[in-house]
Amino acid sequence: MTPHGRRGRTPRSPQPPPPERAAEVRRLFAEEARSERPDLAALCLLVGAAADGALDDTGIDAAQMELDRLAGRLPFRPGGPDAWARAVGRVLGAGEGFGGAPADYRRLESSLLHEVLRRRRGLPILLSVVWLEVARRAGAPVYGVALPGHFVVGFGPPDEQVLADPFDGGRVLAGGDARALVAGAAGAPLEPSMLAPAEPLEVVARILNNVRAWSAARPERSEVGLWAVDLGLLLPSHPARLRYERAQLLVGRGEFTTGARELEAYADVVAAVDDATAERVRGEARLARAMLN
Questions:
Q1: Is the pLDDT reported for residue 54 higher than 60?
Q2: What is the rounded CA–CA span in Å between residue 180 and residue 194?
Q3: pLDDT tens for residues 166-199?
Q4: Where is this region: Disordered (predicted)?
Q5: Single pTM value for the model
Q6: Are 80 and 156 in contact (CB under 8 A)?
């Protein structure tokens, strides 16, 4: 998977794998997510395999090797946090052409690591994953920073922290740049807690949220939302409402009996804290079953 080796491929919309492969991907994802030290690249590539039936084990290995190759281009111990940030930006941004544009928000491929490695384009969080995985392999003190609405990467300890924006080719953020990003994306002030390192499972959960949002805007691609919810439910910590979302997706896809059953199961859980919501959800289940008549 070299920078130019696959760009000529005819564009296609990723389609999920057949059921047997999808089940295997879910099993591997759950195993990795619940391991002692979840591997961010492995999890992101399994997200890609859930989205794209064309991504097999060989393709996953090729993506990991591409991350290794890119790490090999970085200089040996260039210096402190600022030197690391600028060195990674020179290699990945200026040298390899990784970056983003508004149009990338409209493509599912922008949330899939193997496609981001192929296209050199993606959402801020996936480009940040590339930065993280490449810099980590080279020994950099790097971590993800989950700013509201715009993911970036950080280098160095809190008192020396340097932020870089992979979506903007790795531009090092100076002065009020981070405050401006948060204000522009979320209309909120920058809080110190927003600059804390993001754990791998937090990053993956946010990626899956992006995929679900992409699917929600495209009802004809509800199968994308379904596999994203299924993976989200495999994370050790997830909101209970994901089960409600899954049931709604099933009903929307015409799987009325299964969807109604899951709505009823969710209502039973919610009933312990919110009777009104539980009764409303049971009503939705009755309506779903009525669709069979």
A1: yes
A2: 13
A3: 999 999 998 788 888 888 888 888 888 999 999 9
A4: 1-22
A5: 0.92
A6: yes
